[in-house]
Amino acid sequence: MKNIHEYSSNIFISIQVSIFYYTYISIEAIYISPCATWNTVGITIIGTNSPGNASNQLNVPQGMFLHQQNNTIYVADTNNRRIQMFSLDSTSSTAITVASNIDSMSAIYVDDNGLTMYVALRYENRIEKWIKSGVNGEQVGNQCKQCTGVWLDNEKNVYMTESGTHSVLRWSVETNTSTVVAGRIDAHGSTSDHLYFPRGIYMNRLNNVFYITDMRNNRIQKLNMNSQESITVAGSKDGISGYDNSKLASPIHVWVNEESDVIYIADSENNRIQRWLPNALIGNTIAGGAGRGDANNQLSSPNALAFDNLGNLYVCDGNNHRIQMFQLIGNQTCPIIINCSYSLFKKIPTISINTIMFLSLMMLIDIRFN
Ligand SMILES: *[C@@H]1O[C@H](CO)[C@@H](O)[C@H](O)[C@H]1NC(C)=O
Ligand SMILES: *[C@@H]1O[C@H](CO)[C@@H](O)[C@H](O)[C@H]1NC(C)=O
Ligand SMILES: *[C@@H]1O[C@H](CO)[C@@H](O)[C@H](O)[C@H]1NC(C)=O
Ligand SMILES: *[C@@H]1O[C@H](CO)[C@@H](O)[C@H](O)[C@H]1NC(C)=O
Ligand SMILES: *[C@@H]1O[C@H](CO)[C@@H](O)[C@H](O)[C@H]1NC(C)=O
């Protein structure tokens, strides 16, 4: 018969292991189940479906960034030449202008407690850094031809998509110089070392792996910082566009759940948001996909997406001049698929090792007490 000490030791070790496990896995704030579901009817949180310059309106917004810590959204309100900031904690539908007189914005990244904004200026051929409520932007590095994407790493080096040369540049904050990290300058193609008019960029800061929307190749490429070779993680490897779930059509932006490696894509020409699981051969639609239009289950040229801390999806619905929110309705875990050649989670080995460690500890304790 076990006595009370054995049980309390077991509970103690179990708590220790659980703490270890959760600290390990919860580096990233948001974790969304790869099998989660969202309401397909969206709610407009900014915008009125028609272009305008009032504080509750937008005019062809071309970029959006969700600042997780402050729970705010920044919108590159392109045709109004301004950046709008909107608090998700607020019940009103008006935004405030945090920067203005900026031409041809095509993407936005926000840093430093929401106070520093980096914008890609497509026809101005550069990245500019703006301080909230500042009157001037400051150019970052050298020119960036047809600049359409921007992201920062932990050291604050700036990654810029130079779609005009089919490449991605990394600007070093330390040396003020740029190097090519993806694609080949002035050469487009659909092999693994080429890009064709890349647009959005997303970096997983946990491992410095980044993802590029290779727009004219209708695919998403994933690559390591130290290699110009990339692999296709969504869409057709050969660059063929299409509407079936194995394809994409002019993807503009990508968002990656850093813990699960699940990627979400603004599949612009298909007017939908697609989800692709790691190693999947097809994706599935989580929002839009009901034709181009401005009904609440439709999108029109979506060009950016993000999730808030509760797992709700936000879409910059460019040609509808609005930001749509799709509420998370199910965060259920995925059914276990018994198929050895099919890897749903890359994380399973880690989980198994933890489980094995946990069980071994349990056995050790039992042996000691018996
Ligand atoms: C806003 O739009 C109105 C009419 O569409 C125009 O008269 C006004 O000048 C615009 N304001 C700014 C700041 O652009
Ligand atoms: C974001 O939150 C931080 C901490 O509360 C605050 O210091 C900062 O001013 C906020 N940023 C903006 C843009 O309001
Ligand atoms: C960084 O490089 C750019 C382009 O070569 C140059 O215009 C700029 O003055 C440099 N900035 C600094 C701080 O050296
Ligand atoms: C979704 O469920 C997982 C557990 O399966 C949990 O860790 C996570 O926080 C949930 N995410 C959201 C956004 O509720
Ligand atoms: C197992 O997964 C592979 C690769 O995704 C797939 O080709 C195969 O059809 C799957 N087999 C079954 C029985 O589902």
From TrEMBL:
Keyword Ribosomal protein carried by entry: no
UniProt keyword annotation of ATP-binding present: no
UniProt keyword list: Glycoprotein, Repeat, Signal
NHL repeat positions: 57-89, 182-226, 292-329
Pfam families found in the cross-reference section: NHL
Coiled-coil regions listed in the entry: none
PANTHER family: PEPTIDYL-GLYCINE ALPHA-AMIDATING MONOOXYGENASE (PTHR10680)
Protein name, per record: NHL repeat-containing protein
